[in-house]
Structures are given as structure tokens and as C-alpha cells.
Amino acid sequence: MRLRRQAALATGLAVAALVAPTAQSRTARTPQQLLQALLTEKVAPSALPHGYRSPQVTPYAVTATAKSHHAVGGAEILADGGNEAIIYIVFRTRADAKGDFSHANLAGRSTSAAPKALPKPSIVVNTSATGTVKGKLVTIGITDVAFVQGNVIVQAATTSTSSTKHGDVAGAVALARFASKHLRSVA
Predict the structure, then answer these.
(1) What are the domain boundaries of the chain?
(2) Domain 28-186 class?
(3) What digits encode the pLDDT tens for the residues 150-178?
(4) What's the CA gap between 116 and 138, in Å, rounded?
(5) Residue 123: how many CB atoms within 10 A of its CB?
(6) pTM for this model (two decimals)
(7) 130 DSSP β-pair partners
């Protein structure tokens, strides 16, 4: 009899644990609520990967193409005075985000597989940009790690003045891992 009561009690506790919401669970956010959370969530300098500083969260202007794929808006975290960035583009659905991701114009850019730990689809893009700085023509390398996580396209971009072929590749991967973790924390 005592054993039966203990078994019933254990079963009851197990069912209650499965049914009762945990302190950390919450209702899924709408795309607009997720965008607002990305824009208002503070990012402490200590939260960024080693070597990155001065995070600033700002709105990100999405492209007309992203809007045609139902993007609701964007947010970015700028670091190091804007030389490095994490960009979040929020879509109505995961299918919309994947549709936009698949239409990226990668012509003339070097691409490779992203680390397996990042959500899929994902890609690493290395390229360069040329512009005038203080009257001098300068070419910088850029690395962009991009992936789809839920209904969001995430990009982590770094620059390099010492390479015209790529940015800080390891840094872009570290920022991408942080960006994924940060998105999970506000979703």
C-alpha cells in the first residue's frame, strides 16, 4: 500500500512538472514583439566576445527585397564604433526568412560553409569594399557569417584593414555564436 502511494505521488509530481510552466517559459513572441525586444534589450560590453567593445543597439533599415519577403523590420548591434556589426532581420515566418536568405546576391564573393554549431541554412561570405577615407582610397576586407534562426536572418560582420580578401573570420564566427545566443535569450 505504501509503495503504491509513493508511486502515485511520484507519477503525480512528474505529470505536474511536465504540465506546469517553468519560471523561464513564456509565450512565443509575435514577429513585432521579437523585433521590439531586440531593439530594447541592453547588451552589456562584457556580453560580447573577447576583443569587442562599446555595443550600441540601433534600428536596421531592411532592404526592399527583404520587405518583399515580408520582413517586419531589423535591429543591429554595432561594436567598435560601427566597424563590426550583428544584424537581425525579423520576418513574419521562418519560410519568409528562408526565402529571403536563398535570394542573396553572392556573385563575385567567396563563400564557405559556416560552423556546424550555427543554425541552418548558414554561410560565410568573404568580400571587400573600397571607399575614400580622409581623401585616400582604402580597401577593406569583410567577413559576414549569416544564418536563419527561427523567423530571423542573423548576420555577424567584421572588417579588416590588413586583408582586402576577408574580415576577421574568427571574430565573425564568435560574433555569430553570440548573436544566436542573444536571439534565443530575447525570443
Answers:
(1) 28-186
(2) alpha beta
(3) 999 999 999 999 999 999 999 999 999 99
(4) 34
(5) 19
(6) 0.84
(7) 139
